[in-house]
Amino acid sequence: MTTTRWTIGVDLGGTNLRAGLVGPGGGIRVRDAMSLGEDKSSSAIIASIARLVENLRRQAKDPVVAVGCGVPGIVDACHGIVSRSPNLPAWNEVPVREALMGAIGLPLVVDNDANMHALGEACCGSGVGHTNVVMLTLGSGIGGGIVLEGKVFHGDQGYAGEVGHLVVEPDGEPCGCGGRGCWERYAASRAFALFANRLPPRERSDLLAAAGTTIERLTPEVVADLADRKNEVAIGLWREFGRYLGIGIATLLNVLGVTTFIIGGGISRSFDRFAGAARESALSHTYACHVSRLLLLRAALGDDAGIIGAANAAADSVS
Amino acid sequence: MTTTRWTIGVDLGGTNLRAGLVGPGGGIRVRDAMSLGEDKSSSAIIASIARLVENLRRQAKDPVVAVGCGVPGIVDACHGIVSRSPNLPAWNEVPVREALMGAIGLPLVVDNDANMHALGEACCGSGVGHTNVVMLTLGSGIGGGIVLEGKVFHGDQGYAGEVGHLVVEPDGEPCGCGGRGCWERYAASRAFALFANRLPPRERSDLLAAAGTTIERLTPEVVADLADRKNEVAIGLWREFGRYLGIGIATLLNVLGVTTFIIGGGISRSFDRFAGAARESALSHTYACHVSRLLLLRAALGDDAGIIGAANAAADSVS
C-alpha cells in the first residue's frame, strides 16, 4: 500500500516534532522538524504542528488531501483523543484531532506513534510483502503496533498493541503503569541495570569498572560498546535481553498467530547482538509448527517510519 | 450476526461428535450426537461426520447450504488442515476439509473448536452487543477464540488464539507444547494439583484428607465441592486460579485492546469462585483507562456454542 495523493505525516516525540510532505508513491519529498521548546502545553504544540504543516503544504505541487499525526502515549485513535501521555503530561485526555483540525482545516488522523511507525514499516519498509506484521519499537519502553492487511489494528477503543505491558514475570519488577513484571522492564533500555543487579557482586563490579560508569547509567549503548570489546559479561547481558524479548514475542505469536516481527527503535542498532537469543527463546515457547515461519526483521526506515506511516494512515482515511 | 439459511454445525470432541441443524435465525432445530468409538482414524471419523450430516440434512425444510466443523487441536483454518490434535493423534496434518467435502458434497468450513465456540457465543450468546470478544474455554487446557466484528480472527495461518500457551511464568512448569510456564498449566484443570503442591505440608495434607483423594485427583470439581463446604484452603486455591487467569487476561487486553472476555468450558461452572480475583488481578496489570471497561462474562450457550458457531461460520462462508 502506498499513498496516491499528497499527504503530510507528523511524528511528535517527547522533545521534537518531525514532519514530512509525502508525494504519490509514498516517498518523503520535503522534511521539516523543530524542537518543542519549554512550553509543552497542548495549545503550544498544536500551534507548532499547524505551522509545520502549513510550511510543508505550501511546497506541495498538488493540494494536500489529509494529515496524519503520531503522538506518544495511549491514544483513543477512534476519537483522536490522547488518553495519557507519560512524556507529555499536559496531553492527558486532550481531544487532539478536534483541536488540530480547527487549526489546519484538513482531514486528520491521530494515532499512537508506535502504530504509525508500524504502519510505515509494514507498507514501505521491512514489512513489504508480508500480510500481517507486528512492529516492536525498543527504546525506553516497548512500543507495539499490529498491522493486519495494511491497516493498524486498534481493538475496541484504539488501545491495542500496548505490548510493553504484557506480563513476563507475574511478581516481577514494578512498572510505571502500576503493574508488575511488564515486558518493557526486561526488554527495553532499563533492562540492563536490572540484569547487572542480578550478577554476582564480583562480575558486576568488574563490568561497571570496564564500563567506567554506575549501574544506573548502564544504557544499551554502554553495554553494546563493552560487547564490541568482547566483554563476555556484556555479551551475556545481551543474550538475557534477547531471552526476555523472545518470551514476549512467543506470547504475541501464540495470541495473534502473526509470524513476522519487525524490530525498530534505538536498541535495534544492536539487533545482531540479541536476535539469535530472541529467536531461540521465542521458539522454545511456541508450537513446533511455527518454527519455520517466525521472522525477526530489523526495521528499515529509521526515524522516517513514523512520518511515512502517518502519511499512509492519512491517505487511507480519505480514500 | 445470525444465519439466514439452513446450515449444519458439527462439534468434534476427543470422544464425542455433536451436530445440529441450524435454521434461519440461528437456533438449533434438530440435534444429533454419537460416540466416536474405538476407531479414531481420520477416515472413520470423517465417515461418522458424513453420516451425521446426512441424517440432519434430510430433516431440513429447505436445502442446507453449508456445513461448519469445529475440530480440537491446531487447525490451519485457511486451508482446512488439522496440523496437530493432541486428543486425536491420527489427525496430525490431515486435510480435513478436502476429505469431508468429498464425503458430503457441500461447502465446508473447518476451524479450531475453541474458535467455533467463541463465534457461537459472540454471535448468539453472552457476546451479543459487543463488537469484539475474546472467549476462553477453561477445561484441561485453555482454548481461546478471538472474534473481531463478527468474524474469527485467524492471523497468518489460522493459528491465532492459541492463548493457552501464553507465557505466565518464564521458568515455570513444563507444558506439553514443549515450552515452560504456559498459562494453561496455571489456569486450567491441572492448576489445582500444582497449587496444592505449593502449600505448606500440613495444609496440603489437611486439604487432601478433607477431599478424600490424592493430589493428582485434585480436580476443579473436587476443589469446588470443598469450597462449597467453606474449606478456606480450597477457597484460596480458587483465588490463586483467578489470579493467574487475570494475568493472562491482562496480557490479552494489553495486546488486543479487547475488553470483553467470555469464560466458558467446564470450569466456568465455578465462575463466581474465581471471577472476582481474576478481575482484580487483570486490572492490577493493565492501564487505569481499562478499569471501567473490562467485562468478564460467563458463557451462555454451554455445549451448543460450538454447533451454533460452526453453523454461523458456514453461513458466512457462502454469503
Please specify the SSE layout and strand pairing.
The structure is a homodimer of 319-residue chains.
Chain A: E1 7-12, E2 16-22, E3 28-35, H1 42-58, E4 66-71, E5 74-76, E6 81-84, H2 96-104, E7 108-112, H3 113-124, E8 132-138, E9 142-148, E10 151-152, H4 191-197, H5 201-211, H6 220-228, H7 232-256, E11 260-264, H8 271-284, E12 295-298, H9 304-317
Parallel strand pairs in A: 1-4, 4-7, 8-11, 11-12
Antiparallel strand pairs in A: 1-2, 2-3, 5-6, 8-9, 9-10
Question: What can you see in these coordinates?
Answer:
Two copies of one chain form a homodimer. Chain A has 319 residues and is α/β, with parallel strands linked by helices. The first copy, chain A, has nine helices and twelve strands. In chain A, the strands form three sheets. Chain A has a five-stranded mixed sheet. In chain A, strands 10-9-8-11-12 form a five-stranded mixed sheet, sandwiched between helices. A two-stranded antiparallel sheet of chain A has the order 5-6. In chain A, α3 crosses α9 and α7 packs across α8. The mean pLDDT of chain A is 91. At the A-B interface, α7 of A face α7 of B.
